[in-house]
Predict the 3D structure of the following.
Amino acid sequence: MNANYTPQRVVSLQPSATVTLRDLGLLDRLVACTKYCADVCPEVADGSRLIVSDSWTAQTEQILAARPDLVLASVPYQLEAVAAILKAGIRFLGLAPRRLADIYTDMAAIAGVMGVWQSGQSVIAAMQNDIEAVRELAAAASKPKVFCEEWGKPIIASQPWVEELVEAAGGEFIATPGETITAEQIAAAQPDVIVAAWCGAGDRVSLEKIVEQRGWANLPAVRQGQMFCISDELLNTPATNLLGGLRALAWALHPELFPRPTGIHQLQRL
């Protein structure tokens, strides 16, 4: 495909989009991104790109200063900035994934608009194969009940794609994905494994403080040390980063089958 018809100056307001550009070998076309993109994809933090605000706090002047021909963003959007981008005649690709199928579609959309459709299909197939390999290995094991949360105050259950990863890792997700839930409801469900992956918190969630504040000291999962913090970017970045989250979940659920990966720490037995 003639490069003249594909975007050459891309602004990414979403870490997952930046990761996908990296996986497609297209970081040379990325002219601006957010600080969160740099956290998840260190390759972009080399000083050669403008650092701009994210989708929700987007500032039109910052984006236009990068002179992009494509802006990639994801929900939640700052609608005024989106309107200004479109008014300026700049292509805008907005993402709103919920399940793994949506994530694959978003990856294919980015690959298509960038003119590297076949590379996108290869990245998607590799991700699917890795997930299926974990699923096959965990299939014959026990199925512990698992609660994963993406935020702690209020408690919000992780997104539907995390539910799918839990199932692939051999577990049963016990909450409604993406919905608010109380500490009492979680305790009543008697999860075997509890996972905290708070948006923006990295791996710095204090499991001990959660137990104390929620009165969970007598939960079997807590007493047995089956409570974990998984790095935020491994479960909340809807791109190939999720493979790291899947490996962390698989080890947490079935340490006898899977090696311990990076990006996870465990509550000490009480």
Q: What stands out?
A: The chain has two domains: 3-96, 142-266. The domain at 142-266 is CATH 3.40.50.1980 (Rossmann fold). The two ends are 60 Å apart (CA to CA).
